Every structure is written in C-alpha cells, then in structure tokens.
Amino acid sequence: MARRTFFSFHYKPDVWRAWNVRNCWVVKPEEQVDSGFFDSSVFEASKKESEDNLKTFLRNGLKNTSVTCVLTGAETSTRRWVRYEIVQSVLKGNGLLTVDIHKVKNKDSQTSTKGVDPLACIGLYKTENGIYFAEKNGDKWIKYSDYTRPIPESDLWFDAPTSNQVVALSKHYERYDFIAQNGRENIAGWIELAAALTGRR
C-alpha cells in the first residue's frame, strides 16, 4: 500500500524542484509504481488569508498522512510555515525526514546552495510545567510561538527531553540528498523508514 505523504517546502524558489521530486515515482518502471507515494501537500496559502485560517489550511493538508517529507533548499529552514508544518507533524505523530533538493535543477536549469536542515531548527525542551517546542532564532533557541501548549510525553515516539537543554528534532530523524543518494530510486524507501521509526506500518 502506498504511503500518504505530506511535502513541506519553500514555495517560491523551490516549487519546480519540489514537483520533480514529488512526481518522480510516476516515471519509474511499472513494477515499481506501487512503492511510490501519494502526495497530500499544500502550498503556501494566499497572503490574504488570516493566520488562523492559514494554520487551519495547513493542518487540514496533514490529515490522512503518516509521513512528512521536508524538501529542503537554500532558505527552507527559516520559513515560518515550514516550521509550523514540522511542529504539527510531530504533534500528529507523522514520520519525518529531510530531503535536500538544492542540486535538483529548477525551470531555468539552475541548482542552488545547500541549506540548513529545518529539523535542526525546531527542538524540544522540558520545564517543570511540561515539554515545549523551541525554534532557532539565529544561533539562539527561543520558545516556539505558533504552538505554546505543553506536549504530552506519551505523544512522542522518541525519548522525551529531560532538561531545559533543547534537543533538536534532527537528532531523531534522517536527512538525505536527493541527487547524491539517488532519490529517484530511493525516496519511497526513505519515506517507509520514516514511518517505521514512529511505529507506523
């Protein structure tokens, strides 16, 4: 059974690269189609939408998915709504992975530069009041402001943090390079591994 996967990416500079990666399973040999995935991605909503509507829109995009694949270009890690999608994926219990797409050519046949792993920019820490999300602001960790409620430890598939020292999500999830690691043939397996790590089968 194909894995329903949500694709998170920085729309304007990387949409062409993202489409190529997302749809690569279509051009696989017939016998490999079943190991592909259905995508359930959403793009950045209109700037006319309110923040609450946009958050609802993004959460709805994650419904009925079990893995979130963060397609990472040069600036993806700094994008507010990519970070929101990552946080909501953790809350939902989705598998997570980073796939670097900077070497994938855009519509002008140009590549880009490797960016910071977005999963290294979101983390968790523990206080006497519970477990919370943090995000990177430059070189510093600050409290994540788009979701401020404590996270039940039971909702995490990995070991919860034990102190106020922030543990980045990248400690628990894998990162791949689509070009260097032959993503066209291997991305379905990467997605399945991300699901398996969380206990999803």
UniProtKB/TrEMBL annotation:
Protein name: Thoeris protein ThsB TIR-like domain-containing protein
Superkingdom per UniProt: Bacteria
Annotated Pfam families: ThsB_TIR (PF08937)
Stored InterPro entries: ThsB__TIR-like_domain
Domain Thoeris protein ThsB TIR-like: 6-105
